[in-house]
Amino acid sequence: MTPLRSVLIANRGEIAVRIIKTCRAMGLESVAVYSDADRDALHVRLADRAVPIGGSAPRESYLNIPAIVEAARRSQASAIHPGYGFLAENADFAAACEQAGITFIGPQAKAIRAMGSKAGSRKLAQEAGVPVVPGSADEDFATLGLPVLIKASAGGGGRGMRVVRSAGEFPAALAAARGEAERAFGDGSLLVEKYVEHARHVEIQIFGDHHGNVMHLYERDCSIQRRHQKIIEESPSPAVTPEIRERMAAAALALAKKIGYTSAGTVEFLLAPSGEFYFIEVNTRIQVEHPVTEMITGLDLIRLQIEVAQGARLPSLPPMRGHAIEARLYAEDPANNFLPSTGNLQVWQPPQGIAGLRVDSGVEKETEVSVHYDPLLAKVIAHGPDRESVIRKLSYALSNFYVLGPTTNREFLIDVLEHEEFRTGKAHTETRVTSRSSPQAQQAEDEVAVTVAAVYGAHREHAQRRILPSVPVRYRNNPYPHPAAKFRIGEREYEASDTGSRVRIAGVKEDHVDALVEGIRRRFTVSQDGDEYYVCSNLAQRKVTRLSRYPRRHGGGQQESANSPMPGQVLRIMVTAGQKVKPGDALVTLEAMKMEQTIKANMEGVVRAILVRPGEMVAPGQMLVEIESTEENNEHARGANPNG
């Protein structure tokens, strides 16, 4: 094949930045594409050239095959790398590149098409002698027995997936899965499989070249998930013995040979507690978690993809070196069902100076995290000689990763790494982790943060007011003290007063900053944006809001509202004006960042007004439905809570 000169990256965010770095290292020109929403994005500025693909619907811009092929033609790019997500597993896109004479850095269209249907790939796996989970494509669970797993046949990423444990749940789960699959993949076909209890999710990284060679690069364990999406991955798997690894890799390669696979791919399996494993699917692209394989093999998998696309033969299998774990840092709220979070990154300080640590990210300070795309902020990958040291290193790195603005899962990831099941290598896909921080510990950290913010704010105010050098700082020529300032963290409010010698917080110990434990001090990073203070330490990160000194007027009445807990698009409205509702009744379903959320009533009443319509984009806190209580003096009515 003709050597490549330039590579257009049909993607955005972290993976686009990742590919740009490898292109630069190989001496290849990188060409970015961008939607209107991504005009100032990091990947756009890092690329050698960038081509707009416009569109009023930002997410759809990256799905526009003609626009991306035209961008490659205009920029004279000789190849396209699809990254992951968007068009990475779209056979029509691969075919369009081939027809346009552009090298597609990925498998051939026929391989993508063969593996694109879960039902079709199951059949091919069976023909190749690979064990599969008992299941069917006719949506019948009677012969399988409960529990079962319903999943979209045409896609992955947790979309269109539901676990059913009782017969009564099946019809509603089937309808919800089909609707989600249709919106995500344009195909509502489903597959019903026997659900394997306490299984581990283990995948084999495969590679193929254009000379008929295929190889594996060991396994990755991706058992820690939320909403059926991975958040922590590692290699090697603590549950995979050399004998299981040999059998699983042989099965993956048998399937790769059967379909004539080229480029990078992943064959995914469920590993049962018995040691038996079952085929799930093939991801015909580079995976989000590919860095852990790079860490233990020393290979650059993006580079290997590009070299294979140029006609190179595969290298020999490198030895496995040590252990690697990746944690995905998301803009989401674990305390609120992992709802995605948006906003401006006011603080963005990845950890520095840690040997064997890698941070892959597509954002930076002041990046606006929007509703339009997946909320992944960064992947933090640690490598070391053994699993125990890697867990310790990754936990330390996350503790020193300062990020504030949108809510993140940083502290949840640390809790996972320190969870007993994970540390002992016994975690599986049903492992559930909750925060181990007690309410008392969280309140103590809130008090520390508000004290730091108050001290920081007071010193800044004094510095700004000091006009005469001969006048001492904090000097006042009237006998009255400064008026108290009010701060809020979450639902708690605090009152701070500046006495002229130090700042005191009502109800909070004075030594919270200087001596939290006698003689011990802590390092904080503080930044300010108007009335918002962002306080970070290795133990906690908090946003502290300075409140007005004047009380806000509160209205009475029994009329409440259901508000949007997140930015998103209205999918469905399940009530009508005048309808009676009770707590738990579904009101509105939203979609944002690859997930659905149903807003439910939290009070008994009558729907007085519906303030949105299907297809409308809504902002966090926007009023969706007005409900008038049918109970007098209902002190607990607070509108609606997300519970979907």
Key attributes of the depicted protein:
644 residues, alpha+beta, Rossmann fold, D-amino Acid Aminotransferase, Chain A, domain 1, 4 domains, eight-stranded antiparallel β-sheet, six-stranded antiparallel β-sheet
Describe it.
The chain is α+β, with helices and mostly antiparallel strands and 644 residues long. The protein has 4 domains: 100 residues, Rossmann fold; 224 residues, D-amino Acid Aminotransferase, Chain A, domain 1; 90 residues; 84 residues, OB fold (Dihydrolipoamide Acetyltransferase, E2P). Helices cover 25% and strands 30% of the residues. The chain is built from 15 helices and 38 strands. The strands form 9 sheets. It has an 8-stranded antiparallel sheet, with helices on both faces. A 6-stranded antiparallel sheet has the order 26-25-24-29-28-27, covered by helices on one side. It has a 5-stranded parallel sheet with strand order 3-2-1-4-5. Helix 12 runs antiparallel to helix 13. The radius of gyration is 27 Å and the shape is globular. The two termini are 51 Å apart. The C terminus is likely disordered.
Provide the β-strand percentage band: 25-35%
Rg, Cα atoms, Å: 27 Å
Give the strand order, joined by hyphens, for the main sheet.
14-13-10-11-12-15-22-20
- Under CATH, the topology of the largest domain can be stated as D-amino Acid Aminotransferase, Chain A, domain 1
| Named CATH architecture of the largest domain | 2-Layer Sandwich
CATH homologous superfamily descriptor of the largest domain:
ATP-grasp fold, B domain
- DSSP helix count? 15
Query: What is the CA–CA distance across the termini?
Result: 51 Å
